[in-house]
Design brief:
Number of helices: 22
Strand order of the largest sheet: 3-4-7
Helix content: 40-55%
CATH topology of one domain: Glutamyl-tRNA Synthetase, domain 3
CATH class of one domain: Alpha Beta
Strand content: 5-15%
Distance between the termini: 81 Å
Amino acid sequence: MTTRVRFAPSPTGPLHIGGLRTALFNYLHARKNNGVFILRVEDTDQNRYVEGSEDYIQHALEWCGMVPDEGPKNGGAFGPYRQSERSSIYKEHVNLLLEKGAAYYAFDSSEELNAAREQAEKNKETFRYGSQNRLQFKNSLTLSKEEIQTYLNGDYVVRLKVEPGKTVTVFDEVRGNVQVSSDLIDDKILIKADGLPTYHFANVVDDKLMKITTVIRGEEWLPSLPLHQLIYDAFGWDSPQFMHLPLILKPSGKGKLSKRDGDKEGFPVFPLQWKQDTPGFREMGFLPEGMVNYLALLGWNDGSDNEFFSLKNLEAKFDVEGVQKGGARFDYEKARWINHHYVIEQPTEELIQNPYVLEILKEFPKEKYSSIVALVKERLYTLKDLEQETAFLKTPYDYDEKGVAKVRDKNPVKVLEQICILLERAGVGGELKEQLFHWAKEEGVPLGVVMQSFRLSLVGALSGPDLFEVCALLGKDVSLKRVQNFINYLT
């Protein structure tokens, strides 16, 4: 049997990284088993539909290298892949349950149901529309055929008929057996008054018809698992495997990660920019390789201490045995550290083709792009860091007073005047370093003082990339001017 998995988001806004992580685990399970990765858009709740969401989801998957094998954009033999285009399929299948007596029409008004809920609250009971009370309501189990036909001309829903007194047992690949008494499960609505299916009904029907072999989704759907099993049972269908993934927790570890947490602590929670005011990880300078690698570590490991996995590595190594039960705490600094690895690994010539890198470099001569990126690449945790790390090439930072204090009483002016002489004589080529070190040795000047004085003059700080490469990039004239400016500052 071919492994078939689906990522089934709702187009209600930008894709949260929790959803992207779910998509990734689906994708990896498919690739590990030579299977099929499907994108299905669950858009039956038209009131919550947000224009542009579907395209955003597709682009986010493609940015990460997870191109769906089947879906609204990619096509396939099991479409349509938007639930809003499958209404006739749901109608046909709910009629099967109605004919079997596994479902029934319910005609209760909102006012009648609210009154029943209020009464239950007064009695300090939990309201459930089910085997305990369904014969007290207005539905096809309590009305005559003539009355039913009359009510079918108005608003109605279709409910699942849950048999009481049964233990519903479902096996989850991550959490083991999940057991619930059917007495605790409502006669859930399958078809809403607007004629569209509920999530529960549509996703079971779609998973069956699309031949999904493993349902991989977030643990927020775990409480719905027994209900979904009952729907499979009502049809007489075998259910797929189930795998419920742990939540991605906020940095404090308490509660699910939200956009508010990201806004508060200064990091994104979406892969790509959403509209004008909500940047994503891509706009914050993350490479897709870094994003994918970090997401894979949120709730999974391969049993080793290794933390760096390319998408190809993950396709080969991913296994359900490595999925953890407990929530995974989001750590933005670790995400940056992972991304740093991929920035260093990516060839410089590829990095300078990145549109975000090009935007930062546009103020420099094109012939220097490669040299500039190569100079600072190992200092970049995100591509956005490039702006700060190259700022000194335009103008030196304000002199670091603590750094200046370290050299001020060690006659830095003598060193700087000699550097000016050597710059005039040797320029910024390879001879400069050799001659400067030779002079320092002859004069008995500590190399630390030489390099600190020189670096402060060119950069303004005591840390930074290779000093002689900086000098070569700035050129002889600019380097001379900066050294002379620092002499003036000191004197």
